[in-house]
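Sequence in, structure out. Go.
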Amino acid sequence: MTTQLDSAEFQRNAELILRNVETVIDGKPEAVQIALVTLLAEGHLLIEDVPGVGKTMLAKALAKSVECSVRRIQFTPDLLPSDITGVSAYNQVEGDFEFKPGAVFANIVIGDEINRASPKTQSALLEAMEERQVTVDGTTHALGTPFTVVATQNPLEMEGTYALPEAQRDRFMARISMGYPDVESELAMVRGRNAENPFDAMNAVVSIERVQQMIAAARTVYVSPSVEQYCVDIAQATRRDAELRLGASPRATLQLVRAAKASAGLQGREFVLPDDIDALAQSVLCHRLIPVRGAGSVADIVSRIVADTVVPAGEIAPSVVHQN
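Output:
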């Protein structure tokens, strides 16, 4: 990885964050891990599920586990784009306009019920999510590192909502569903939260400087040419599949590789395996794909494509020369 943060230290810090989040998110280790992978891969996360299953709690717990700036945006029909990006206001003392940053200027931005805002307001996030900057009145303002949008939405509650356009969905690195907890997890939740909410006792376990080091380390995880080809072959297959009207974009391929690099780092490895790609394919690809009428579920289609794609021959781990 890097001389500043080796693989063991990367994994140790990741475990600290995972365990901290899991103190308030019961029985959902896969969702928690993908949320952390998305943060370390410099992506954005869309949490989509029915009300009351912990979507916003997961976003808040991840944010609270890291010592960084956090802003929450409650998306409503009357939310304006300037509420997100900021506005230039006239300063009477200085006799000039000055920029007042909006809610997007934070390391972790929690977008609650993102599909309740109008398409015009939703589009205010496009530049920030892709280019990590905001342009207001012709002036560009850079965002910090890390910068991650964790947005929630309810797929079943249609009244008063606006579906996210394809361009917006494609900017989310991963989409997850929380799902209902199992019996044991729900029982533990009932028993453990009668007197107090464990979220109130949460503290940051990793500094922002350490997260920045982890992000830098994740970038250097080795991806062999054969694994790169495997990712491209999966993306190409989605574009040719008869059951899909819209396949994966090149951005999806890039983000699948980046997510796999962060996932490998979480497991203490300095190189990506095809299994890392397989494990993340549904979370990274499904929300970007549009099936034809009458086709099966997108998840089943992605599973079939991944199963049918052969890993090209070639070395997967870095050579001794590369390691040195």
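Check: Confidence is low (pLDDT under 50) at residues 320-324. The CA atoms of residues 47 and 152 lie 5 Å apart.
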